[in-house]
Amino acid sequence: MDQPMIPPAKPIIGDDERAAVDRVMRSGMIAQGSEVAAFETEFAEQLVAGRTCVAVNSGTSGLHLGLLAAGIGPGDEVIVPSFTFAATGNAVALTGATPVFADIDPVTFCLDPASVAASVSERTTAVMPVHLYGHPADMAGLGEVAAQHGLRIFEDAAQAHGATLAGRPVGSFGDFGMFSLYPTKNMTSGEGGMVACATEEIARAVRLLRNQGMEKQYANELVGFNARMTDIHAAIGRVQLGKVGGWTTDRQRNAAFLDSHLEGVVVPAVLEGATHVYHQYTIRVPADRDGFVAALRAEHGVGSGVYYPIPNHRLDSLAPYAPGLDLPETERAAREVVSLPVHPSLTQEDLERIVAGVNTLAKAGS
Predict the structure, then answer these.
(1) CB-hemisphere CA count at 13 Å for 63?
(2) Are 136 and 164 in contact (CB under 8 A)?
(3) Which CATH class is domain 15-241?
(4) Residue 28 confidence (pLDDT) above 90
């Protein structure tokens, strides 16, 4: 196969990002400082309807500190999806609380409100949906369950920068919403996370927790962590923030082309009122998914990803929280999903090669 491989993801770092890093390096102020503060303000204004934002050193830190700031700890149960990256359940477990895994809606791959309702116990404190692959979770349905049972809502929006539901941005529904800034996300700061907070009380608690428990130097108010974002990372993030809207448009255009040309596979749905930002373009391949992935790469030079082949409730690390749990839609998705390239760097030729490869393999049964 003579053609270059089409990668499943491709971080975009250009001269603007390099110049921003150089500017910070020349200033001599490279730890958390004015760049972080500016990034927090700009992120809040552009992506979460002005909610107070707190920058941290990773998305996982954002979830962990957000949960702690919201008072989650031993004795609490937080309902989360099993079909997601392990950081969601890990963050709950790290607080001393218990992650409770619920099933997903087979159309959106996000938490199913009915499964959440069936998972509520007397210890359940909150539900934390993931806006998986860039499609918003059913916040109306989850909100009804939460209201009925007196639960709080937190959002894992790691993959959903700019996604909306009924015109409202994700990250603005719950007590807090966390966005990841890892290199392969829709925008990056090199590494990092952003916590969008519903109240100043939660925001202040996250600030304390990220900085050894202090707002004023040496005046430690609680036991905290070192989870600060550097000005170097924030400078990258500020540049990317100015580009993510255009990149999202590119992703949506690429997804529309795939939607209209792919055959023999189940393409991703977009529910009415939802804006999908296509962190991943995830299809279902009901027969021999793994063979399909291997052939797509070997015969057509198209890379892809399988997110996530092992549900959280079956991971060695998290299975003890879910003995004997049966989540049929989660298991089915783990067997069938494939994420195709949809990133902004794709050319028209790339898109046509992806379509040709997928359609050929789907027709042949891979």
Answers:
(1) 27
(2) yes
(3) alpha beta
(4) no
**CA separation (Å) from 46 to 91, 180, 319?**
26, 16, 38
Local confidence band at 119 (pLDDT 50, 70, 90 cut-offs): very high
Dist CA 366 CA 363 (whole Å): 8
Burial category of 163 from C-beta neighbours within 10 Å (exposed 0-12, middle 13-18, buried 19 and up): buried
Split at pLDDT 50, 70, 90, the class of 77 is very high
If one compares 94 and 365, the residue with the highest pLDDT of the two is: 94
Q: Give the pLDDT of residue 168.
A: 98
Each residue's pLDDT tens digit, 127-139: 999 999 999 999 9
> Cβ atoms within 10 A of the Cβ of 235, count?
26
Residue among 239, 207, 170, 327 nearest 17 (CA): 239
CA 196 → CA 97, 130, 214, 248, 262, distances in Å?
Answer: 22, 15, 20, 20, 37
Report CA 224 to chain centroid distance, whole Å: 25
CA dihedral 73, 77, 78, 80 (to 10 degrees): 130
CATH of domain 244-364: 3.90.1150.10
Q: How far is CA 278 from CA 65, 134, 160, 248, in A?
A: 27, 5, 8, 8
Calculate the CA 268 to chain-centre distance: 17
Residue pair 131/155 in contact (Cβ under 8 Å)? The answer is yes
Residue boundaries of the structural domains of the chain: 15-241, 244-364
With H, G, I as helix, E, B as strand and everything else as coil, classify residue 218.
coil
Which whole number is the average pLDDT over 347-352?
A: 98
E strand or H helix that includes residue 88: helix 87-94
Closest CA to 38 of 61, 22, 25, 20: 20
* Length of the chain measured in residues: 366
